Amino acid sequence: MSDRVAITGMGVVSALGTNVAENLRALLEERSGIGPITILPTRHRGAIPVAEVALDDAALGALAAPRSLRSWTRTALLGLCAVKEALAQAGIDPAAERTAFLSATTAGGIDKTEPVYDRFYLPEIPEEVAQYLGTHDPGDHAQRIAAELGFRDLVTTLSTACSSSANALMLGDRLLRHGLADVAVVGGTDALCKFTVNGFNSLLILDHEPCRPFDRDRAGLNLGEAAAYLVLETEAHARARGAEVLAVVRGHANTNEAFHATASSPDGTGAYEAMRQALAMAGLAPQDISYVNVHGTGTLNNDASEGIALARLFGGAVPPFSSTKSFTGHTLGAAGAVEAVYSVLAIRHGVHFANLRWRTPLEEAALVPVTRTERGVPVRHVLSSSFGFGGNNTSLVLSAPASTP
After folding, report:
1. Do the two domains 5-240 and 250-399 of this chain adopt the same fold?
2. How many CA atoms lie within 13 A of 312 on its CB side?
3. Is the four-CA dihedral 67, 69, 70, 75 of positive or negative sign?
């Protein structure tokens, strides 16, 4: 086993901005990205709020700037933007290192294959639509980004619902610890599409107002779109090339409780075990955690289940916690990586981010989140969790570089 794994680069695109700096500024200023649908072509415009990246496909393509825009989906373009930023900060050329690319998604390129389905009755599907047929495969975005940027080693796609990109980070950490790669670029990307909006709406778990995670009167989640990636390498590899270490990966765990296809277990067993095992791997006690970035979707089921798990793990001393989905909405396959980036920002800038719009404690667990941005606080260890449909639960422990092993 190799030494600890370091994070040396990050990139993010979300409704809060098109880079890490813009996202941090919005978080510190408590500016939510949730609002009316303006880009997605859907009949739900004006009725269902979402957290859209404020660029149409043409503007996003110009920002991502692939060599050719042909057949690039919104999901792939979001991912390309974030990967480029992460590589630039880390100073990594994927073609010059043994670099794995582990990318997560849930919907993949469905935003561009939905129009194919809409026109399937025609004698001939128009070329401007037909060019996207191959992008329905969730792995299409990863292959495109890898080819564009020169990844030549392991390229793979993960899709485990809401825990997808947290699992990408976990897999990257394992590859590096076992010497199977020198560098791993890990994360995820998901664009809004009619399939996800209609699907979550049919489950009756969408809030028709901006969401209120961990509030007694919460009414559901808001969907969002985003991409986020982190560059991982062992501390020894980072030191050898003079790279700045932003944070280290101390622990992680995944549980599969399989309680229900779209619901968490009411007693929070899966979430509790994921958090407990991640702390055990990190060699930390619950009281060592400085801040918790909770999954916190805003649904009745998730927040109650997660609240019970938090109370069980931490007892009466739950650390400062918040759900940044109150800013970004639920970005599905990208969520774990987005929140890993935010966790590193919390460590580096000494901040607890706000849990927007919270008013009243849960009935199931009387927990009070951080409701206003708290600056100038010591943040050494962050617990960040992503709990997915089907009971796929992942928790990560990210720590300051100087933290004791």
Report:
1. yes
2. 17
3. positive
Question: What's the topology of domain 250-399?
Answer: Peroxisomal Thiolase; Chain A, domain 1 (3.40.47)
Do residues 12 and 243 touch, judged by C-beta distance below 8 A?
no
Q: Where are the domains of the chain?
A: 5-240, 250-399
Does 260 participate in catalysis according to the annotation?
Answer: no
8 Å CB contact between 315 and 367: no
Alpha-helical (H) ranges within 12-163 are 20-28, 57-64, 74-90, 110-118, 127-130, 140-149
Question: What pLDDT is recorded for position 404?
Answer: 62
In angstroms, rounded to a whole number, what is the distance separating the alpha carbons of residues 185 and 92?
Answer: 10
Q: How far apart are CA 298 and CA 275, in angstroms?
A: 19
What's the confidence (pLDDT) of residue 130? 82
Active site residue 208: no
Catalytic residue among 141, 295, 352, 381: 295
Catalytic-labelled residue, pool 162, 193, 211, 237: 162
Structure tokens at 281: 């791997």
Q: Name the active-site residue from 237, 252, 330, 352.
A: 330
User: Tens digit of pLDDT for each residue in 53-107?
Assistant: 999 999 999 999 999 999 999 999 999 999 999 999 999 999 999 999 999 999 9
- The helix/strand/coil state of 305 is helix
Amino acid at 342: Y
Tell me whether residue 330 is one of the annotated catalytic residues: yes
Closest-CA residue to 201 (of 226, 220, 215): 220
Category of 88 on φ-ψ map: left (φ > 0), alpha (ψ -120 to 50) or beta:
alpha
Spans in the chain with pLDDT lower than 70? 1-2, 403-405
For the chain, what percentages of helix, strand and coil (3-state, to nearest 5) are there?
A: 35, 20, 40
Residue pair 214/309 in contact by the 8 Å Cβ criterion: no
Topology of the domain comprising 5-240: Peroxisomal Thiolase; Chain A, domain 1 (3.40.47)
